[in-house]
Amino acid sequence: MKVLKFTNDLSQKIVSGEKRSTWRLFDDKDLKIGDDLILVNSETGEQFGFAKITSLIEKTIGELTNEDMHGKYSSKDEMYASLGKYYENIDDDTTVKLIGFDFQSKPKKLVLFDFDGVLVNTADLCYKIHQDANSGLTKERYKELTSYSWEEVIEKLRVEEGYKRPPDFDTHYENGLITLSIHDILLGTISVLTQKYILAIVSSSMSSSIRTFLEKEKAAAYFKDVLGSDVHISKVKKIKMILEREGVAPVNVVFITDTLGDIRDATECGVKTIAVTWGFQERETLQKGNPAAILDNPAELLETIEKLL
To answer: What SS3 class is residue 198?
Structure first.
């Protein structure tokens, strides 16, 4: 994330709500609308908050109006005298960025959910669809392969075992999915989490199938984003994508999953994981990834997330 520094006086005005804009000359950060920022007190070196750029206008100093100055300066001479404390070699042709921002005193925190096996038990459904097209695929082998990332699974099956992806997998999956439900305890936990955290789903299933299911469960509004296989096959890519999009540091993220492959993907992104045993893999397998916690009961989830974030 990009860093903006403010004097102690201006830092206090931002925290109090008095200040929500700034000017920047000679921008070496390529500041843009939508950028997430870390705000630092230039005199103490302390971080005092976070911001998102909501507006940005570029003008030359010579084009600035009294409205742009917000009554801060009584004249151009006073403005030049003030800016001269921070910048050298400025004149009427110098470009200035007029930036408006929203302020947060606390960092944003993100809870990522795997879908299959965590929010809904689709293990038998998925295995049956794959097995119908690949009669030699045993359930034990299928469970073993979930220790890898999904792109590695597909490649291993295709090259080593002649795997064929069912051509109508998505249709069978969505038809089966619509008959399932989220556990009541999980649904209640999610409704509480969304009041404090950003929630998103990172899955190997299609985003459209997941969204349809969430609508049925009246849970769609709880999740800010759904990143399925149509977004990218790699969960590493998708985790990094959502972190960048939301401007959240990995230390402020936790990923809830039921497979060793997902734990390894999240670890590669610097993200903590909570492994759950009510999904596809057993505790013994999940332990190999050294998750931050392993849970056997959905009722434990809320307290564990609070401890980790």
So the answer is: strand
